[in-house]
Specification:
The protein has one helix at residues 3-103. By secondary structure, the protein is mainly α. Residues 32-77 form a coiled coil.
């Protein structure tokens, strides 16, 4: 092989080695960028999930409060109705007792 051919082969090998090194560096940069982008997306998804969880919890608490108010109002109405019936029967019971005492 001539000296010129050896130089060309050597230059080609060096150029290939340089391209290989550059390709490896580019691959590392791409991997690092992909990892950064993945972490950013993960953080964004986590933040969105936390926000949704807070919103759902708030909605559930508000619904529970409304239900508690409804149940309290219904219970109060039932108690008032029972109290009214009891007071009406109390007068009847008192009259019945008075009649028994008077008739005895």
């Amino acid at each position: 092989m001539s000296l010129e051919a050896i130089k060309q082969v050597t230059q080609a090998e060096q150029a290939n080695q340089a391209r290989k090194i550059e390709a490896q560096a580019q691959a590392k940069r791409l991997v690092a960028e992909a990892e950064r982008a993945g972490r950013a997306r993960l953080e964004q998804a986590r933040a969105q999930a936390e926000e949704q969880a807070r919103a759902l919890l708030k909605e559930a608490e508000e619904k529970a409060a409304r239900n508690a108010q409804t149940v309290t109002a219904q219970t109060r109405e039932s108690c008032e109705a029972l109290r009214g019936k009891a007071e009406g029967r109390l007068a009847e019971a008192a009259q019945s007792i008075v009649r028994r005492v008077v008739n005895s």
